[in-house]
Amino acid sequence: MEYKLTFKEYSEALKKNKVLGLKCQECGWINVPPKMACYKCASPNLDVVEMSGKGKIQTFTTAFVTSEGREDEVPYIIVLVELDEGPWIMGNLTDVDPNEATMELIDKRVKIGHKVFPGDKYSAGEGARPLFSLET
After folding, report:
1. pLDDT tens-digit readout, 25-50
2. DSSP state of 53
3. How far apart are alpha carbons 91 and 93 in whole angstroms?
4. Is CATH 2.40.50.840 the right assignment for the domain spanning 52-136?
């Protein structure tokens, strides 16, 4: 079995504010981030698709303690976003003071951006991660 979309390719697309996923030819499920087989039905028959990068916040949490190397970034908001095409992805939320985040964030519309995080002793190097901002 071969990768249709590697994590490196997914990360490079994020650096251009593009969200790539894998649409299952068997059940239609869109898998984000990339996997070797469909998360829903385990089929390896997947096609690369580009999504709009827009969606709505389903839930969030505020992090006051962080991992090694990101100590200067706390506090920050982590959101779980349902993209317009269906998949849910996690990322950080900008434009909102983490100390003032309330349940009013739920169902707010967001659009994707990215942030490049440097590698650390636990990773294979730098990588882009989703960074969301409220739609205006």
Report:
1. 999 999 998 889 999 999 999 999 99
2. -
3. 7
4. yes
Q: Please report which helix (H) or strand (E) contains residue 7, including its range.
A: helix 7-14
Does the CA dihedral 18-115-5-34 come out positive or negative? negative
Is there a cis peptide before residue 75, judged by omega within 30 degrees of 0?
yes
- Residue limits of CATH 2.40.50.840 in the chain: 52-136
* Bond prior to 33 in cis (omega within 30° of 0): yes
Q: How far apart are the first and last CA of the chain?
A: 43
What global pTM score does this model have?
0.85
Provide Rg for the chain, Cα atoms. 16
**Could you give the CA distance from residue 79 to residue 57 in angstroms, rounded to a whole number?**
6
Give per-residue pLDDT as tens, 50-74: 999 999 999 999 999 877 766 677 8
According to DSSP, the residues that pair with 83 across neighbouring strands are: 55
